[in-house]
Q: What sequence folds into this?
């Protein structure tokens, strides 16, 4: 395929356009919360989840127009989690993606509300797909996946355990549980929704879920590595947060070398499973390799 970086730049721009199309206008008496939502959504980021969603949809023969509402929805939910992560009651971070975090810019109260509002808006946006689809049962399945992977058995459940065990020594099994839910679940949602919208069967959905889980855990371990080895200038957010907040990470448990080896193992497993599928999407394979081995 042509240069991956060039293709990625183009697809990120298109993803940005899709996301902005679904953002509510900043006007009315609740303008402050709408501004905080827009500020958070437009603060940058790699748009990995909507990209994974659309590319997985394409892998199974679907089209981007089918995926568009869910691309916006998944990024809204991801952004809501970042807003809440940065709050004083959580990680107490003042910066995100090189800019002031949402609560630091708009106040703690608006930070809480902006995160809540984006979760609710995500489901309102996803539900719009019913108005244009020829396959309502696929949309219903996608919304169910989105809810399950966001909620108590997904991202929020992982965050609960993570918060409760801050300052405590935890086992590798517990850390794996947190990573599978807190980070892996939303990546699972992205890829599984893309597959579901394109009509993938249950066996294919299960395989896609495992690929996404491998990617999610590897992504979080790489995040642990970067928190130790990178800088705020490169990463766009404070480094050393894990140590500051007394959090157990894969690096603190296993060390840098074993952490890097696990990232490589999970990466190869995910790519191997992807290759076993009937459909092919070279861009998706390169995207998975890039996000796992990223330096920022």
A:
């Amino acid at each position: 395929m042509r240069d991956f970086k060039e293709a990625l730049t183009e697809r990120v721009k298109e993803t940005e356009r899709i996301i902005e199309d679904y953002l509510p206008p900043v006007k009315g008496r609740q303008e402050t919360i709408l501004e905080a939502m827009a500020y958070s959504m437009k603060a940058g980021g790699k748009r990995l989840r909507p990209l994974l969603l659309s590319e997985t949809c394409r892998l199974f023969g679907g089209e981007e127009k089918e995926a568009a509402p869910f691309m916006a929805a998944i990024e809204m939910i991801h952004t809501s989690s970042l807003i809440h992560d940065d709050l004083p009651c959580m990680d107490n971070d003042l910066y995100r993606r090189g800019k002031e975090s949402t609560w630091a810019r708009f106040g703690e109260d608006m930070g809480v509300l902006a995160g809540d509002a984006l979760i609710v808006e995500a489901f309102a946006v996803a539900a719009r797909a019913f108005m244009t689809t020829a396959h309502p049962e696929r949309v219903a399945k996608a919304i169910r996946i989105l809810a399950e992977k966001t909620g108590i058995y997904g991202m929020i459940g992982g965050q609960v355990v993570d918060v409760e065990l801050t300052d405590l020594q935890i086992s590798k099994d517990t850390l794996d549980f947190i990573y599978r839910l807190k980070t892996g679940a939303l990546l699972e949602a992205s890829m599984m929704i893309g597959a579901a919208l394109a009509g993938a069967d249950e066996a294919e959905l299960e395989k896609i879920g495992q690929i996404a889980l491998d990617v999610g855990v590897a992504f979080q371990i790489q995040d642990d590595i970067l928190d130790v080895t990178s800088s705020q200038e490169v990463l766009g957010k404070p480094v050393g947060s894990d140590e500051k907040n007394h959090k157990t990470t894969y690096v603190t448990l296993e060390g840098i070398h074993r952490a890097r080896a696990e990232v490589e193992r999970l990466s190869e497993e995910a790519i191997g499973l992807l290759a076993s599928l009937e459909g092919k999407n070279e861009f998706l394979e390169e995207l998975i390799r890039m996000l796992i081995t990223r330096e920022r």
Summary: The first strand starts at residue 95 and ends at 96. The radius of gyration is 18 Å. The chain has a mean pLDDT of 91. The chain is about 70% helix and 0% strand.
